[in-house]
Sequence to fold (316 residues):
Amino acid sequence: MKIVIPGGTGQVGTVLARAFAADGHEVVILSRGAATSVARVVRWDAETLGPWAAEIDGADVVINLAGRTVNCRYNATNRREILESRVKSTTVVGQAIAAASRPPRVWLQSSTATIYAHRYDAPNDEATGILGGVEPNAPDTWRFSIDVAKGWEEAAQRANVPRTRKVLLRSAMTMSPDRGGIFDTLLGLVRRGLGGTCGDGRQYVSWIHDADFTRAIRWLIDHELDGPVNLSSPNPLPNAEFMRTLRRAWGAPVGLPATAWMLELGAVFLRTESELILKSRRVVPGRLVDTGFVFQFPDWSAAAADLCTRWRATKR
Fold:
């Protein structure tokens, strides 16, 4: 197959490109200029149609991951860039697919599990999950993230591509041992003795092992699912248990906890937002499981052990 990945130079794109290239597929990454040895890179501006659109015409699959990082402070400029980068890139990908004489048979469009409400009482699947944005006392930054997720999905839904199946990937945090990824960051805290409970530790962490993420993407290419699909382990767990399990997998006996105010202060210094740690994301993959997908790493204990082993192997 020919697989085109707009915005594919980040952690998730690298995981997918590496896996598909290993399978023998032709992988093309659309990028503003970042180089990669994993796949062929074609330049685009993520806003307007250009020569890059020829890569989509005749491709089998498009996996759009484009969007400015959310690991920043949500000031007015960053908010505008975060939202516009997602809406504009998704819109122009839809335009390229609509104009193609041989459009791809499936368009996998990145979204986020953050679209669901902050809650502890029940998990969010695609059928019964509660979309966020109206939770009482939710910080403004949390509502902004949900507005971005909704705008992202709406941009894809507006695209008129009748010959292409559209899937909205409501992805949890993808855990891989790659440098700079979320797992690398969390493990860095554990290694420094700082990987304790965050806040009150009740907030749920939704995650997916990188092997299951790539397997789920292959599943979605091969099965006739469309619309929103949650990409997450079937077993999210509270932050306190999540971090305790990671410490055990690494062999760290203790980890200093961080209160909510400490996380807020630290987020300012690190120029990020505490939402990434404090919001409860209790998401489960209802549609994947219902169609027969079986997770290789459904539980965090085995996933964390595997990731720690691989992280050590790559750092030798």
Remarks:
- DSSP finds eleven helices and eleven strands in the chain.
